Amino acid sequence: MHAEPEITPDLIAAHGLKPDEYDRILQIIGRAPTFTELGIFSAMWNEHCSYKSSKKWLRTLHTTGPQVICGPGENAGVVDIGDGQAVIFKMESHNHPSYIEPHQGAATGLGGILRDVFTMGARPIAAMNALSFGEPGHPKTAHLVKGVVEGIGSYGNCFGVPNVGGEVRFHRAYNGNCLVNAFAAGLADTDAIFYSAASGVNMPVVYLGARTGRDGVGGATMASAEFDDTIGEKRPTVQVGDPFTEKRLLEACLELMASGAVISIQDMGAAGLTCSAVEMGDKGGLGIRLNLDRVPQRETGMTAYEMMLSESQERMLMVLRPEKEDEARAIFDKWDLDFAVIGETIPEDRFVILHGNQVKADLPLSQLSSQAPEYDRPWVETPPAAPLGAVPAITPIAALRALIGSPSHAHKGWVWEQYDHMVMGDTVRAPGLGAGVVRVHGSGKALAFTSDVTPRYVRANPHEGGKQAVAEAWRNLVATGARPLAATDNLNFGNPEKPEIMGQLVGAIRGIGEACRALDFPIVSGNVSLYNETDGQPILPTPTIGGVGLLATLDDMIAGLPQAGDLAVVLGVTRGHLGQSALLAEAWGIEAGDAPPVDLAAERAHGEFVLAHRGHLRAATDLSDGGLALAAFELAEAAGIGVDLEPADIATLFGEDQARYLLAVAPGALHGLTSAAATAGVALTVVGRFGGDRVALGGDSAPLSELSALYRTAFAAAVG
Amino acid sequence: MKAAVITFPGSNCDRDLAVAFAAAGARVARVWHKDAALPPGTDVVGIPGGFSFGDYLRCGAIAARSPIARAVIDHARRGGYVLGVCNGFQVLTETGLLPGVLMRNAGLRFVCRMLDLRVETTDSAFTGGYAPGQVVTIPVAHHDGNYTADADTLARLRDQDRIAFRYVQNPNGAMDDIAGILSENRRVLGMMPHPERVIDPAQGGTDGSVLFRHLLGQLATA
Questions:
Q1: Is the minimum CB–CB distance between A427 and chain B shorter than 8 Å?
Q2: What angle do CA A448, A266, A166 make, to 5 degrees?
Q3: What number is the ipTM of this complex?
Q4: CATH number reported for the structural domain that contains residue B121 in this entry
Q5: pLDDT of residue A496
Q6: Residue range of the domain that includes B145
Q7: Catalytic residue at A94?
Q8: Cys-Cys crosslink for B46: which of A115, A221, A682, B5, Cβ 3.0 to 4.6 Å?
Q9: How far is the C-alpha of A307 from the C-alpha of A292, rounded, in Å?
């Protein structure tokens, strides 16, 4: 047994603890901590686990509604979908690990979010990934794209969950800090949902799954610090994933839950054994005693410190009904997974760690989370953006080429064809065009999934940008015919100790909260990733919104593509807002002007109109970055037909006004729709017609085949 | 008609395959890899897609040496029917019930997409429901689907009319565009594409259901 190192100011700083935070530890325990205890505090009190900079603002979010069974605070949010069933979902970042080691970082990001879902008793039925990379020409970008996509694919494909959507964007602000936000959703019965709160004294605490190694030791602390040029040295803190073990763990856990053996269960994610044990004890008002000699280990000579901070993957912690131990053990034997009773619940409010007949830690358990520091960090309002100046001249088709030839707006088949998007046999709308849709197996229902944010908007105007991310997710769900149910937020920002970054976070959360309230679209789970900076350069503020919607019957789905002769109809008001638009950014590298304002009443009215008339629409898509021209091109291209739009001016074609949809309407259905719009008081404008083999924008045109070739090769040409 | 669908650790299309057999009218038994025998009266064995044993060692290699594999081999040698899809095809080549091997895709990337196959023979209980030369749309989803065999084997497959499906556009570098092959007695089919994923219009097609329905029809009248 090695002697534990002495606690020095350097050691404290290396654990990411500030001097005043260390003083707080001394106050709580009345003595100097042991090395293992210092590690436990650092794991519990880092930004990633404690939300110490964001908690104050997260509390202001809209998180309730009649459909919400469980909001933020558990492993994932739980939302009622009728018939005694619930959808359980969350989105979480794995940004820093993915930058250091893209394949494993992204793979274990997906693995972690899948466990968050199945630890609650839900079988995962859909995944998405929102990815932000640096400039295509940056020396690291292609390597990161390849590694991240392969990592997500290798994990999700083997695990067997369909990947039905997501986003991929490129911007120089992510050159030194890519973002990998993984979403997973699962299905459970409302009377068989499992929570993390332990109950009962002297109940066995059981370790399940893969063995513990030294991988990921200190990962959560690493995720809560800025990067500098020493990141290469941080590679050993990245975890290594094994989707084969995860798949077996899923099946074993679902069998275990069905057997009635589980009192409570919690996956070991960030800060592994420490966070999961404290969470279970804290929520149940109990103490926990663990004997680390009984932890299944895959390396020899591991210390208590290493075991408590290891982030080895594919592990769970459970409080077991003791009379069911044999049955539970047999299930894990069947799946060839480790099952070990490593401790018990205790009545005293203590977190006691034994190793080699020594007490390595003895801490007041509830204070590890309840006494975690919480900051009201100073922040400054983002100054209003300067008005957009004159925009350079460009012809419509050249503008369209600039967009579809850029990897951010090109066809993303290169990415999603590497993901199995059809496994489980219930995918009814594949990735590529708006939200993905998956059937609720064995029922007539289906769920729609989308992930959205426009970081340029958030930087220019955090409040409107936050609103816009929610509104776009809501629109993407509506455009499939689904009734939006609830959302998860994954807030990626820079260093919150800088008031201007904190101002972005505050502004975005306020905007998200306002939009969620106005649209009845509560946030039920989420994750905050701060310190996304390299050498002091922050990322674009990127609050990704993952949205989930319900189709009560598949007949409600607006599934189709436009057919030749269909009218192209815009629902909503077009003013031609070009500030912060995709066109300016891609054609000239101009990122100026304000974000488009979001009228939430109009969002609501237009969304309700689409849902009310979904049976009369051949196709629908939301209008977002790239505006009318890009949306019309994407719909037409997917259908393999041309489109002829009447407007000729760039602002009308490429402006990014919100609360708009593009609808494909059969000529015979137009009259009814127009009178319904008049009655509802919503603006409906016929802007052109689908058909032919050319894409025409106000008279300027090009063959569809030529544009399609550009659209479908641009991504691989840039980074493939 | 009774179908047995095998589950190995890491199988992830076992439910999908069971659903497809059931939709075609079969009674379906789910069979665990540690079982040493198939359920009595099994007419057809389904070996599903997925990543049996995590694709460790070689795709399908460990599954081919599991207790149930011995029973499947015996079933096939007695003239029983076997359908192996994707990882199931890999398992069948590893058991020796089908010749050749599935190598890593030529593009080195996982490929999941709908694609067109040409039905190359209708002389089997699996493919008899299609028209000769019919082009059908059935998706692939694999990392190791590059069918490879020596020249003699390929010649034999061609001469004996045992190539069941060819890719219209080859996604993985497979020799002779081979997507699926039959055993010599035409009762074992291995194919990389997933017919169980296109059995319902909502999935984007129904070309796969023809295979299951025809197989069941043949077995019911046999």
A1: yes
A2: 25
A3: 0.96
A4: 3.40.50.880
A5: 96
A6: 2-221
A7: yes
A8: B5
A9: 8
